[in-house]
Write a structure and sequence with these properties.
The protein is of the alpha+beta class. The protein is built from 16 helices and 13 strands. Helix 7 packs antiparallel against helix 10. Bound molecules: adenosine-5'-triphosphate and magnesium ion (3 copies). It catalyses: tRNA(Ala) + L-alanine + ATP = L-alanyl-tRNA(Ala) + AMP + diphosphate.
Length: 483
């Protein structure tokens, strides 16, 4: 059976559809039902109210492949991107859900059958984990017993972990319960003694691929006691890129057909070779590949690189990618080219990309042109500063200087920090922030960069309307971009 990612996604959804699950389209990345969340970061988000019973659906089982971004709040993987083999800011989460329907037994049987029978993953390369009771909830002996029965594993392959890894909560209140993870060993001989170690940078070692959450308790008050939920539920999540790497026989998400074409594009644009190493150039290429996806998907939903919260996160991600391109020696705007590859690669599965192709290219290029100009100005000023600081042995860039770069030249504070850190200088960030806040209080919000093209603003309202779901069937485009 083919392991191309479109097939891996399709197989997952078909497997659960055949077992009575409604296949539900990915919700938008911008949460529709949760003002506390910046971006959807798990498959369960669109079902939150169904789990709590606030909302009723005509089905009690569902499956989806959900667009996720983990770049803020409790789940922030930004600093991991490019550095670990398994994290992106943007990824797809495959999930099956039971709303008070089946519970642990079926969930475990399904997961095991799909992995080992349908996908053909060797059991010898898998370890599962269950909750050990740390923190006072009952240890999940029930799940351990089911795993033992279903897999034949002994205790060495049914690991017991604590609250941080194996107990899930929706928030300070609401549904919660133990979870059970499945880990895969990348590399030559599966080595049980290495479980719990961070996988090596090439990806070898034990990597979590699938998390099964068993919602069985409810908590009415923060830190209060839990009571059993009237109907226990299941929420699972498996990273598409992670299972694709397993099935494609590669150790890194960035070597799967979902990402490798984008990495190769970054290599081609920079005239350098990608070697899959920990070297700075390879890290930069992976960062560009990931951030181009986040960029394309967010702009497709009408999020523009601007100064409000969510918009600013996008801007920072884009600028981070551009900075990495800059350090690879790419001299002209390039991020829009990688973003267009994202459209080609995934537009059949996510039609919003095709529909907003022109806009994605235009907004991305525009942002890069503007940022490169800012970068040039800011770098020049900083270099003069560094020269002066070196002659007096000063190690800290004064608050006024950092604030002035921002208020007068639009040079973001975080970027000033990154560049200073590269040169082993510090920045008086707190001081600079205080000055900027003060200036904003008297003069209103500072927007030193030219306003966005009014056409983008006008387009935004229209863009935030939902896109028609055409199904996950499309396949053709998925392997098109192998630059
Ligand atoms: P990890 O410990 O590797 O950071 P996690 O425990 O934070 O993963 P979960 O919150 O359990 O991840 O999410 C469910 C699944 O989603 C994970 O098992 C993994 O397959 C996938 N996943 C989570 N974060 C990422 C990411 N940043 N990039 C790609 N896949 C991810
Ligand atoms: Mg994580
Ligand atoms: Mg984990
Ligand atoms: Mg997990």
């Amino acid at each position: 059976q083919s392991a191309v990612s479109s097939q891996v996604r399709r197989t997952f959804l078909d497997f659960f559809a055949q077992r009575g699950h409604e296949v539900v389209a990915s919700a938008p990345l911008v949460p529709q039902n949760d003002p506390t969340l910046m971006f959807v970061n798990a498959g369960m988000v669109q079902f939150k109210d169904v789990f709590t019973g606030k909302e009723k659906r005509p089905y009690t089982r569902a499956a989806s492949s959900q667009k996720c971004i983990r770049i803020s709040g409790k789940h922030n993987d930004l600093e991991n991107v490019g550095v670990t083999a398994r994290h992106q800011t943007f990824f797809e989460m495959l999930g099956n859900f039971s709303f008070g329907d089946y519970f642990k037994e079926e969930a475990i049987v399904y997961a095991w059958e799909l992995l080992t029978k349908v996908y053909g993953v060797p059991a010898s390369r898998l370890i599962v984990t269950v909750y050990n009771g740390e923190g006072g909830f009952p240890a999940d002996e029930e799940a351990a017993a089911i795993w033992r029965k279903v897999t034949g594993f002994g205790d060495d392959r049914i690991q017991r972990l604590g609250l941080a890894d194996n107990f899930w909560t929706m928030g300070d209140t609401g549904p919660c319960g133990p979870c059970s993870e499945i880990h895969f060993f990348h590399g030559n001989e599966p080595d049980l003694s290495r479980f719990g170690e961070e996988p090596r940078i090439d990806g070898s070692g034990w990597t979590e691929i699938w998390n099964n959450v068993f919602m069985q308790y409810d908590r009415a008050e923060k830190d209060g006691p839990v009571t059993p939920l009237p109907a226990a539920s299941v929420d699972t999540g498996m990273g598409l890129e992670r299972i694709a790497s397993v099935l494609q026989g590669v150790t890194s998400n960035y070597d799967t057909d979902l990402l490798r074409g984008l990495v190769d594009r970054a290599a081609q644009l920079s005239g350098k070779r990608y070697t899959g190493s920990t070297g700075a150039d390879d890290v930069s290429m992976r960062v560009i590949a990931d951030h181009a996806r986040t960029t394309a998907f967010l702009i497709a939903e009408g999020v523009m690189p601007e100064k409000q919260k969510r918009e600013y996160v996008l801007r920072r991600v884009m600028r981070r990618a551009i900075r990495h391109g800059h350090r690879l020696g790419i001299e002209k705007p390039f991020l829009h080219e990688v973003a267009l590859d994202v459209v080609r690669l995934m537009g059949d599965v996510y039609p919003e990309l095709n529909e907003r192709r022109e806009l994605i290219a235009r907004v991305t290029e525009d942002e890069e042109v503007r940022f490169r100009a800012t970068l040039k100005r800011g770098m020049k000023i900083l270099e003069e500063r560094f020269g002066a600081m070196q002659s007096t042995d000063a190690r800290v860039l004064p608050a006024e200087a950092a604030a002035d770069l921002y208020t007068t030249y639009g040079f973001p504070l975080d970027l000033t920090q990154v560049i200073c850190a590269e040169q082993k200088f510090e920045v008086d960030v707190a001081g600079a922030e205080a000055i900027i806040r003060g200036a904003e209080e008297t003069d209103g919000p500072i927007n030193p960069e030219a306003a966005l093209d009014p056409a983008f603003r006008e387009a935004r309202g229209r863009l935030q309307e939902p896109v028609t779901f055409t199904g996950y069937d499309a396949e053709e485009g998925d392997s098109e971009v192998v630059a």
